């Protein structure tokens, strides 16, 4: 785990050093859990968004997109339940004055028991080698059994307080923290306040005069912009069920615990799609969207073993099925996307609070009803993080040197082709620019003439550029260049006139989309 933490730290500094992600307002020492995307980060992020958008809107005739405003009528959030129930349980340590999410403190305690079990298993695996039987070891080793029992008991108590009638049992939660002797990581003390609920929505005021201003919220999810536009889109687009509305946009949450870089941010971006369906068909559609979305993730080639579903035991009162797609990050399997069967709750609530009839007339059934909804909701930033984590490698080379390379899927890479003149003279820079001028309309190209070729290759490896081309004397004679592959580092001589056809298909989003149909 310590080694993984080390790797994660390196990924975070790599993101800064190579223009992917900077702390927000860096010159003022940053702003908690808010980040800016740099020159390479924004390209990668845009490519992720394109991959998602096109997979939804281009590949499905019955899915259309919208772009709703961040500010919405305040009643939206009353109707959706966010004003009353979008809370996290919060606890303060009186000595360090630090604030924590009480549920996270307990989850971390459970993770400690799991870690202890894992360490015992790894130790035994090393000792016994091929003959090691993990199941038998788990069932018989005293230390594993002891930690497993502690874990199970804590898990059961945690489930009970989280699912108490009338919401989370806050006193019960504090009691667990005291009983487990959980200490503040800063002060090392157990001097805790009571647990209380904290609403995660940011608010501001709209209107100039203080007395005339009204309180509005920065949306904590993009989904509500889709629900309130359901009628507009259905009518103007003459959409027939089943159909979907997709949207990409910023969301804001005043997260108490903001950690792990861009995993949990206060300002982030979501890609959400609400799929409107006939009541009664929701579990079939839920299964279908689970499969479709998992295929989208696995299509990036990061290995099926790095993904898993985490089906929810505890469902929100309006949901009848929910799952997360988790990805294996350096800090464990973590949620990247949520898929929820949300029944007709949201449309029903907006109908109630707005007084408008929000229904669909089904010509086949010859009746009107409120559609049910399957939602797919993925964070752009978490997707970005999962891609960076999986792509980052410090590779030992046969000559003993090390190179840092990002094995980004070529279609998502910020720069697709780098063109280098071998030297800065003899017309080589001009020839290199000529190649770029020809190819820049088809994919993102970069010109580099500074430093030795080897150093230039390393810089391109570090930003995940899949192809580099070197222009040399021979180029001037026969219009060929050397084309170098980022992953294999192999170089081959190709005609300039073939470059586009060799590279374009491999680096286009279309190449990814083709595997999805
Ligand atoms: N409309 C449903 C919804 O918002 P969610 O599980 O709260 O569901 C969906 O969020 C996705 O948004 C998550 O799977 C995650 O990828 C992303 N997300 C949520 N909170 C985030 C945060 N604070 N920072 C970054 N991404 C976040």
Count of domains: 3
Strand content: 15-25%
Main CATH class of the largest domain: Alpha Beta
Which ligands accompany this protein?
glycyl-adenosine-5'-phosphate
Mean pLDDT reading: 95
Q: What structural class do the secondary elements suggest?
A: alpha+beta
Task: Please give the largest β-sheet.
Answer: 7 strands, mixed
| Tally of DSSP helical segments | 18
CATH topology of the largest domain: BirA Bifunctional Protein, domain 2
| Stretches with pLDDT under 50, minimum 5 residues | none
According to CATH, the homologous superfamily of the largest domain is: Bira Bifunctional Protein, Domain 2
Tell me the span between the first and last alpha carbons. 38 Å
CATH architecture verdict of the largest domain? 2-Layer Sandwich
Topology:
Blueprint (H helix, E strand, L loop, with lengths): L1 H16 L3 E3 L11 E3 L1 H20 L4 E3 L9 H6 L1 H4 L1 E6 L6 E3 H27 L5 H7 L1 H21 L7 H10 L16 E4 L3 E4 L7 E4 L5 H5 L2 H7 L6 E10 L14 E11 L4 H17 L8 E5 L9 E9 L2 E10 L3 H10 L5 E3 L4 E3 L2 E8 H12 E5 L5 E5 L10 E5 L6 H12 L5 E3 L5 H10 L4 E5 L1 H6 L1 E6 L5 E5 L3 H9 L1 H5 L4
Parallel strand pairs: 3-9, 19-20, 19-21
Antiparallel strand pairs: 1-2, 4-5, 4-6, 7-8, 9-10, 10-16, 11-12, 12-13, 13-16, 14-15, 17-18, 21-22, 22-23
Helix pairs in contact: 2-13, 5-7, 5-8, 7-8
The structure holds glycyl-adenosine-5'-phosphate.
The site of glycyl-adenosine-5'-phosphate (GAP) has 19 residues, from strand 10, strand 13, strand 16 and helix 13.
């Amino acid at each position: 785990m310590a080694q993984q933490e080390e790797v994660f730290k390196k990924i975070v500094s790599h993101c800064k050093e190579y223009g992917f992600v900077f702390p927000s307002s860096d010159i003022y020492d940053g702003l908690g859990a808010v980040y800016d995307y740099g020159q390479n980060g924004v390209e990668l992020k845009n490519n992720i968004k394109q991959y998602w958008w096109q997979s939804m809107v281009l590949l499905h005739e019955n899915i259309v997109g919208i772009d709703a405003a961040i500010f919405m009528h305040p009643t939206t959030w009353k109707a959706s339940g966010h004003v009353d129930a979008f809370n996290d349980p919060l606890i303060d340590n009186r000595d360090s004055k630090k604030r924590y999410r009480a549920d996270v403190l307990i989850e971390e305690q459970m993770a400690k028991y799991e870690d202890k079990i894992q360490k015992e298993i790894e130790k035994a695996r090393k000792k016994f080698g091929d003959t090691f039987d993990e199941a038998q070891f788990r069932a018989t080793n005293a230390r594993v059994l002891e930690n497993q029992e502690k874990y199970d008991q804590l898990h059961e108590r945690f489930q009970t307080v989280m699912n108490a009638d009338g919401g989370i049992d806050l006193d019960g939660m504090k009691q667990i923290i005291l009983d487990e002797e959980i200490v503040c990581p800063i002060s090392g003390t157990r001097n805790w306040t009571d647990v209380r609920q904290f609403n995660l929505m940011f608010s501001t005021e709209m209107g100039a005069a203080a007395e005339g201003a009204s309180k509005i919220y920065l949306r904590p999810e993009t989904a509500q912009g889709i629900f309130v536009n359901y009628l507009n889109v259905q009518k103007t687009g003459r959409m027939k069920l089943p159909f979907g509305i997709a949207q990409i946009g910023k969301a804001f949450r005043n997260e108490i615990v903001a950690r792990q870089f861009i995993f949990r941010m206060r300002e982030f971006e979501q890609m959400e799609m609400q799929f409107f369906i006939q009541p009664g068909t929701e579990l079939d559609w839920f299964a279908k969207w689970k499969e479709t979305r998992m295929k989208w993730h696995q299509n990036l080639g990061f290995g099926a073993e790095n993904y898993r579903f985490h089906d929810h035991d505890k469902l929100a009162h309006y949901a009848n099925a929910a799952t997360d797609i988790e990805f294996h990050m350096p800090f464990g399997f973590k949620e990247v996307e949520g898929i929820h069967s949300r029944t007709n709750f949201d449309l029903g609530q907006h109908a109630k609070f707005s007084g408008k009839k929000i229904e669909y007339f089904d010509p086949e059934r010859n009746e009107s009803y409120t559609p049910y909804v399957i939602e797919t909701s993925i964070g752009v930033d978490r997707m970005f993080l999962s891609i960076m984590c999986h792509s980052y490698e410090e590779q030992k080379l046969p000559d003993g040197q090390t190179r840092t390379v990002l094995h980004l899927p070529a279609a998502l890479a910020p720069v697709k082709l780098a063109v280098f003149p071998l030297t800065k003279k003899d017309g080589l820079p001009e020839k290199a620019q000529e190649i770029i001028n020809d190819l820049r309309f088809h994919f993102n190209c970069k010109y580099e003439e500074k430093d030795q070729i080897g150093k230039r290759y390393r810089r391109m490896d570090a930003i995940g550029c899949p192809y580099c081309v070197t222009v040399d004397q021979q180029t001037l004679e026969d219009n060929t260049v050397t084309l170098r592959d980022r992953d294999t580092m192999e170089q081959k001589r190709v005609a300039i006139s073939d470059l586009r056809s060799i590279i374009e298909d491999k680096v286009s989003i279309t190449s990814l989309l083709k595997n999805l149909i």
